[in-house]
TrEMBL record, chain A:
The chain crosses the membrane at residues 12-31. It comes from Mucilaginibacter phyllosphaerae. This is Cell shape-determining protein MreC. Keywords: Cell shape, Membrane, Transmembrane, Transmembrane helix. The gene is mreC. One of its GO terms (cellular component) is plasma membrane. InterPro entries: Cell/Rod_1, Cell/Rod_MreC_2, MreC, MreC_beta-barrel_core. Coiled coil: none annotated. It comes from the Bacteria.
UniProtKB/TrEMBL annotation, chain B:
Coiled coil: none annotated. One of its GO terms (biological process) is regulation of cell shape. Its main location: membrane. It comes from Mucilaginibacter phyllosphaerae. Belongs to the MreD family. This is Rod shape-determining protein MreD. It is found in: Cell membrane. The chain crosses the membrane at residues 6-23, 35-60, 72-93, 114-132, 144-166. It is a multi-pass membrane protein. GO terms for cellular component: plasma membrane.
Amino acid sequence: MRNLLIFITKYNAFFLFLIFEIASLIIYIKYNSFQKASFINSTNRVSSSLYARADEFKGYLSLKEVNDGLAKENAALRNQLRSYKYADTLAKRTVNDTIYKQQYVTVEAKVINNSINKRNNYLTISRGTKDGIAKGMGVISDAGVVGKVVFVGEHLAIVQSLLHKDSRFSAMLATNKEIGYLEWGEDMDPHKGLLIDVSNNAQPKIGEAVVTSDLSLFPAGVPLGKVSKLNAKKGGGFFLNMEVALATDFSKLEYVYVVINKFAQEQNTLEAQEKKADE
Amino acid sequence: MSRILIINLVRFVVLVLLQVFLLKNITLYNLSTPYLYILFILLLPFETPNLVLFALAFVLGLTIDAFYDTPGLHAAACTLLALVRVFFISITVQKDGFDNEPEPTLSIMGFRWFFTYALVLTLFHHFFLFNLEVFRIDEIGYTLTRFLLSSVFTVFLMLVSGLLFFRKKERK
């Protein structure tokens, strides 16, 4: 016993190393399921308040660009107003439109923390369960797709950015509706994505728009980017892979919209039932 | 004693803030990201007990993780860094020389020693950090490029900060 103690004290550096290394690796591995280690991330009180401060300051620096974006969006929305359209018929009465039921609603949120230069990037946004945000919802900006909500606090939520090695969104070519997946490229360029697993008979052209498909968690047709190169290096086989210039400029995100799908719950319950029936 | 404590506390806070609010946003050509905060562990006094050294490295890593949203990643890399530091110092520094050489700074230890020290420790830390973060063999070439270029950037910043706080009278 005494010899053992002497041995341990003599090589104490190594044993301390083992203890702390194992502790941190356990934290790191558990973090893959994210919620378990949620206390060490930027929704905790100290780091979120510091980030909010820094962001307040940064907000001033980019006021001009944000203003431009908002003005553009205002203009687009104004064009949809009924008063801006020419009424074709004389009889004016409000009709409760029962054919169209609102499926998607968006909630606007401010980005308070963002990164683009890591292999796995996350954003922190200023909306949480209080505002109806739940895990798995899609996030878009005025330019295009941003990511997916992975963790929700009461007032804040964390979004797994499209710039993440596990991010994969169902996408299609805008003209011929050929479906594939959009991923982030391996070379970590925040302006480039890869559209993979597109069927061989799709004939894509450079400059063609890539949008979200009906199978994704976004409304169909949200822009993802434009095809910029036809043959991406990773590929071959039975499918086409191509490079996509992303529509969203992740380095300049200020405001985003969380997409709430009102039928999501119904869809999930139905699909769960079907899964059960299969077993 | 209390002076050393205060200096290190200030160093901790300043390096963490610098890393999180300035260096986190700096990337050269998507390849080179500096992680200057490890300078805190490098500059701890020689007589720091191993337990304190490892605990501080772990806490520093977790603090950085809280801001980077990567729980455990930097903590693991910093713990490895502490172990390499213990080995490196026990190999290169005479134990009885501790009285007049309290801290392994550039101005006390001289350029050649400090450069080797910073380079070796940074290489270990960055190699572990980048590979644990990516954790994919098929991207190894790209990860290695990032690791090497980031190490160069970090060591460069360390030398610059060493020269900034260079005090000549301490060298005997």
